[in-house]
Specification:
31% helix; two-stranded antiparallel ribbon; 4 helices; 3-stranded parallel β-sheet; 95 residues; alpha/beta
C-alpha cells in the first residue's frame, strides 16, 4: 500500500468544518482543511507521489474509539516511516 502521511497542528478543536471521507461526512479542524487544500501544491511532492492515498490521523483513525486510537497512536512511528513522503503543516501563513 502506497500512501503519504500528513502531520499537522490540530489547531482549535472547537472550530471545525465538515469534509467527505469515503462518502462519510466527518468534522475536522479548520487547520486540517487548510493543510489538505495546500498539500497538492507542496514543493516536495513528486510525480511518483501525486496519486498516493493520504494518511491523516483525523481521517484514518476513529476518533470516538479510544481502543482504536490507542492502537493507532502506538503505530504512528511505523506509519510515518513507511509513507512515501511526510508533509508537515504548522498553519497558514496568515494564521
Amino acid at each position: 500500500l502506497s500512501f503519504n502521511a500528513l502531520s499537522y497542528v490540530w489547531g482549535d478543536p472547537i472550530v471545525t468544518e465538515a469534509i467527505l471521507v469515503n462518502g462519510n461526512r466527518i468534522q475536522v479542524t479548520t487547520n486540517l482543511v487548510s493543510a489538505l487544500r495546500y498539500a497538492p501544491y507542496h514543493p516536495s511532492r513528486s510525480k511518483n507521489t501525486t496519486t498516493m492515498k493520504p494518511w491523516v490521523d483525523a481521517m484514518c483513525i476513529n476518533q470516538t474509539d479510544s481502543t482504536e486510537k490507542g492502537h493507532q497512536v502506538s503505530m504512528m512511528t511505523d506509519i510515518y516511516s513507511q509513507s512515501g513522503i511526510v508533509l508537515r503543516w504548522l498553519g497558514s501563513p496568515i494564521d
